[in-house]
Amino acid sequence: MQHEAVFILAIESSCDDTAAAVLQNDKVLSNVVANQLIHNQYGGVVPELASRAHQQNIVPVIDAALKVANINKEQLSAIAFTQGPGLMGSLLVGSSFAKSMALALNIPLIAVNHMQAHVLAHFIDEEGFDKPSFPFIALTISGGHTQIIKVNSFFDMEIIGETTDDAVGEAFDKSAKILGLPYPGGPLVDKYAQLGNPKAFTFTKPKVPGLDFSFSGLKTAILYFIQKKTFENPNFIEENLNDICASIQHTIIEILMDKLQLAVATTGIKQIAIGGGVSANSGIRKTLKEAEQKFGWKTYIPKFEYTTDNAAMIGIVGYQKFLLGKFETSDVVSKARIQF
């Protein structure tokens, strides 16, 4: 059943991006993100600096989201916020703001699991993008997570495989660091990989049983390979950067695809949806599209702006929870670690 217009203000502050969005039912009216560039000089996210930047950004970002959506705060039906997982200091800035605003406006408060939001971003009503039907398999790939999830309904999800160590985004960023590329290095590996030969160098894929992943061994293999080659030729990275990046990316994509094929074989589900920051990777997108022809799958790739951390995905979960009346009291707590 469709309510008349439900307006959800969504707040996302799990890591280093302060984001706010306004949704009317399942349509995005605004999606504003303030990136924190301060972390680049440290080669990674500094939690203390992140929470401080959220405090500076949150009011202007929410103000901008309401202005772009062209609605005033009195029209809001509810406020949704990221409860976790994420950095505790960052989460607290978003949750305390959401609580006080919901209290001031006397409207419902909705807590959202960040990982569920990556999966459910596919249900945002966006022209030219199909929505998967249940059940489907979701591959969530980001800097902090690598999971294969069997999605039976909006709030019935089961993790059937996950990484035992590093996340795939970490594998990209750490490989980039080994190559001397600036942080965040994942997008740069992708950029150079498009110009290189993916078969130039071979890296052994870790043998992990079932649907679980492991990326720490691959990272070590890349490190030793680069050390050996640069010892023989100090200009090795410079002369072969595109090929090295293409080979690393090719190996990581093969690891992901092997597990997806196994997941399809195990569950019999041929609908595959990807989400999370690493799903912005051009090689992964291309390979998944090819899998439709190759394996007869139906693949769902979200709009680019809904892959990295954003508030629109928090808003779509907020909308689904609103329809079910799943609200929180103001004593709801943020959680750095959280399961489905």
UniProtKB/TrEMBL annotation:
Classification via Pfam families: TsaD
Domain of life, source organism: Bacteria
GO molecular function terms noted in the UniProt entry: iron ion binding; tRNA N(6)-L-threonylcarbamoyladenine synthase activity
A GO biological-process term: tRNA threonylcarbamoyladenosine modification
Residues engaged in binding substrate: T140, I141, S142, G143, G144, D173, G186, D190, N281
EC number(s) recorded for this UniProt protein: 2.3.1.234
Cofactor binding, note field: Binds 1 Fe(2+) ion per subunit.
Principal place of residence: cytoplasm
Reactions this protein catalyses: L-threonylcarbamoyladenylate + adenosine(37) in tRNA = N(6)-L-threonylcarbamoyladenosine(37) in tRNA + AMP + H(+)
PROSITE patterns for the chain: GLYCOPROTEASE
Database matches in Gene3D superfamilies: 3.30.420.40
Residue ranges occupied by any Gcp-like domain in the UniProt entry: 27-315
Enzyme class, UniProt record, top EC level: transferase
GO CC, any one term: cytoplasm
Alphabetized UniProt keyword annotations: Acyltransferase, Cytoplasm, Iron, Metal-binding, Transferase, tRNA processing
Localisation per UniProt entry: Cytoplasm
CC cofactor: Fe(2+)
Binding site for Fe cation: H114, H118, D309
Task performed by this protein: Required for the formation of a threonylcarbamoyl group on adenosine at position 37 (t(6)A37) in tRNAs that read codons beginning with adenine. Is involved in the transfer of the threonylcarbamoyl moiety of threonylcarbamoyl-AMP (TC-AMP) to the N6 group of A37, together with TsaE and TsaB. TsaD likely plays a direct catalytic role in this reaction.
NCBIfam families: gcp_kae1, T6A_TsaD_YgjD
Family: Belongs to the KAE1 / TsaD family.
Protein name: tRNA N6-adenosine threonylcarbamoyltransferase
Gene symbol of the encoding locus: tsaD
